[in-house]
Amino acid sequence: MPDRIVFGAAALPEPERGWLEAVERLPIESVWQGGHILPPTGTGEVITRLALMTAWTERVRVGTSILVLPLYQPVVVAKQLADLDARSGGRVSVGVGVGGEFPLEFASVGVPIAERGARTDEAMTLLRKLWQGDEVSHHGKFFDVDNVTLRPVAPPPGDRMATSGQLGGPPFLVSGRKAPAMRRAARLGDGWMPYLMSPNAYARSVETINAEAAATGRDLDGFEWMMYVYCSVRRDGDQARADVASFLGGAYGDKPSAMLDRIAPAGTPEQVAARLQEYVDVGVRHIIISPATHENTLEVVQLAAEEVLPRLTLPTAPPAPAGSGSPVAAASGTVSP
User: Fold this and answer.
1) How far apart are CA 312 and CA 138, in angstroms?
2) Has the keyword Chaperone been applied to this entry (predicted)?
3) Which CATH architecture has domain 205-214+223-312?
4) Which CATH architecture describes the domain 1-170?
5) Are 11 and 31 in contact (CB under 8 A)?
6) Residue 22 in 3-state DSSP?
7) Residues 270-296, mean pLDDT to the nearest whole number
8) What's the CA gap between 98 and 209, in Å, rounded?
9) 141 and 122 in contact (C-beta within 8 Å)?
10) What is the pLDDT of residues 59-74, one digit of tens each?
11) Of 144, 155, 323, whose CA–CA distance to 223 is shortest?
């Protein structure tokens, strides 16, 4: 994988065809959206949103940010994701996490919230097996499968966008902020995609993931170092900072403004570039711009793509690789919940 800096964008507040068409004309390489089953507000569910994004884009990579995997029956979601990957021309990526901020979701689908980490580990392992295309039998703590073969949807003749999907299925980008998520990324993931994390904290997470990979004999060649960044970019830096304070103040109002400033860059293109450069310097290579504003999100993404991205530069010494061994073999590992 080439060592370069790329930008993605979060399709907030909901995927919208015109917005996605405009973003595809920008130097943006990916679009992302999450979603809950029982959110406290009227927002969409993640697989539904992913389906809309695959249908309304042609070029960019499309991903979940994030899929709360323990809420889903793995055979069902494996089929859904494989079909969307095939119909989109192999453009799907799966940002995955354990959730937990809405306990009612877990109770409503019969999943004990204390099991969410272990269920996520086992589900990721099972999805990997199903996406290989071979007959699968799996007998774990939470899931039992006997002699099943998952076949993605066959693209209709003449559909230029559709293929058989990515060999082995879409990549897993593990999200989170705590040590179990880092261990999950090192053992089971194809990349690391945390959120609300300062550059210093990201640097520590890189060390943790590298150490865990080395301990398990996993080679992280091709591993994706990503960051989901809430931010606002405006010509008027004061407006951008007001955007972030308003957007994150309700959800993260317990955090002082100085902390929000460390984890949610805001300002002019020059100011935001300086802040994002700190992430690049500690190893981030794919930055997902999540507009931290309630209005005109396209302006934030456009300024980021056209005036922030060109200002970022790779450090002279890239982060050292870790470990050795096979990512496929590591996919059978287990991470503490």
Assistant:
1) 46
2) no
3) Alpha-Beta Barrel (3.20)
4) Alpha-Beta Barrel (3.20)
5) yes
6) helix
7) 97
8) 18
9) yes
10) 999 999 999 999 999 9
11) 323
